[in-house]
Specification:
Strand order of the largest sheet: 6-5-4-9-8-7
Strand content: 15-25%
Helix content: 40-55%
Radius of gyration: 20 Å
Shape: globular
Distance between the termini: 12 Å
Structural class: alpha+beta
Number of helices: 10
C-alpha cells in the first residue's frame, strides 16, 4: 500500500515517551555513529533533559552504551534484535531466497528483495555476487522510491492518480547529475515499467551503479515489493543489462509473486 497522507489528528493513545525513545535510536546513522547528549537533543528536537531521560532508559535496557574515554553514546548490538525479529518472521523472505539465489547465479550480479517503508524501499533479503561491487548496500539499506529502480517498479503498479500526489509530497533531491527529480519525468518511467514489466535507474543514486527491477505482487494482484539487480557500469552498458538481465529479473519477481502471502 502507499503510505498514508500526513495527518495532524490528535491521538489519545499515542505514547510520547515511547516515540522519543525511538527517535533517539534513529538519531544514530552511518554518518553519526557516536553522539553526545547535546547531539542527540539537537538531532531529535528534544530538550536536553528529555533526551537524557530517553538515553538513560535505553542504556538501562541495553540498546545504547557510552564510551568510557570519549563519553559519547553509541548503539549496542541488542538493537539488531529489533530488525532481526522482523526479518525472521517475514513470510516473503523465506519464499524468495531460492529465487534470489538463482537470479544472482544467472545474472552474475547481486539480487535483492525490497519492500516499501514510507517514501523509501528497504532491502529485506539479498544474495551477493562474488564480483566487485562499487557500492555496499546490505540488508536494511533504504533507498528513495523516486530515484531507485525498485521504487519505480513498486510505484508503477499504482495508477498515476495515486502515485503522482505521493511523488509530489516526497523530497526529491538530485543524488547525482543523472537523478530525475521532476514528477512528469518519473511518471514517464513508471509508464515505461508498466509497458515493459521492469524499471531502471542508471547512476541516479550512486555513480557507477545501475538498477533493473520488477514488481512483486501477492496472490490478490496487489504490489508488495520489488526485486532488483545492481549491475555496475564497469561491467555493463544499460542496453546490454536490459537485454540480458531484465528478463531474469522479471521471471524472478513472478516466481516470488506466486508464493507471496495475502
Amino acid at each position: 500500500m502507499l503510505p498514508p497522507e500526513p495527518t495532524a489528528t490528535p491521538d489519545a493513545l499515542f505514547n510520547q515517551s515511547l516515540a522519543k525513545g525511538l527517535q533517539v535510536l534513529c538519531a544514530f546513522q552511518a554518518g553519526h555513529r557516536s553522539l553526545t547528549l547535546g547531539d542527540i537533543a539537537a538531532r531529535t528536537g528534544m530538550t536536553k533533559a528529555s533526551a537524557q531521560r530517553s538515553v538513560h532508559t535505553l542504556q538501562r535496557l541495553g540498546y545504547i552504551g557510552k564510551h568510557p574515554s570519549t563519553q559519547r553514546f553509541g548503539l549496542l548490538p541488542r538493537v539488531v534484535e529489533l530488525g532481526f525479529n522482523y526479518l525472521e518472521a517475514h513470510p516473503l523472505i523465506a519464499a524468495a531466497h531460492s529465487y534470489l539465489a538463482q537470479l544472482a547465479r544467472d545474472s552474475g550480479e547481486t539480487a535483492t528483495l525490497t519492500e516499501p517503508n514510507g517514501d523509501h524501499m528497504v532491502y529485506l533479503a539479498q544474495v551477493l555476487t562474488t564480483q566487485h561491487i562499487p557500492v555496499l548496500t546490505p540488508v536494511g539499506t533504504q533507498v528513495p522510491m523516486y530515484a531507485s529502480s525498485c521504487g519505480r517498479a513498486y510505484l508503477s503498479q499504482w495508477p498515476d492518480a495515486q502515485a503522482q500526489p505521493w511523488l509530489e509530497r516526497m523530497p526529491r533531491p538530485a543524488r547525482t547529475r543523472a537523478t530525475l527529480t521532476q514528477v512528469p519525468d518519473i511518471l514517464a518511467r513508471l509508464q515505461r515499467c508498466r509497458d515493459t514489466g521492469y524499471a531502471t535507474n542508471c547512476e541516479e543514486l550512486f555513480l557507477g551503479d545501475m538498477g533493473i527491477a520488477a514488481p512483486v505482487l501477492n496472490l490478490r494482484g496487489q504490489v508488495v515489493g520489488a526485486v532488483h539487480v545492481a549491475p555496475p557500469t564497469s561491467r555493463w552498458r544499460m542496453d546490454e543489462a536490459q537485454a540480458r538481465l531484465a528478463p531474469l529479473v522479471v521471471e524472478c519477481a513472478r516466481a516470488i509473486s506466486r508464493l507471496a502471502p495475502l
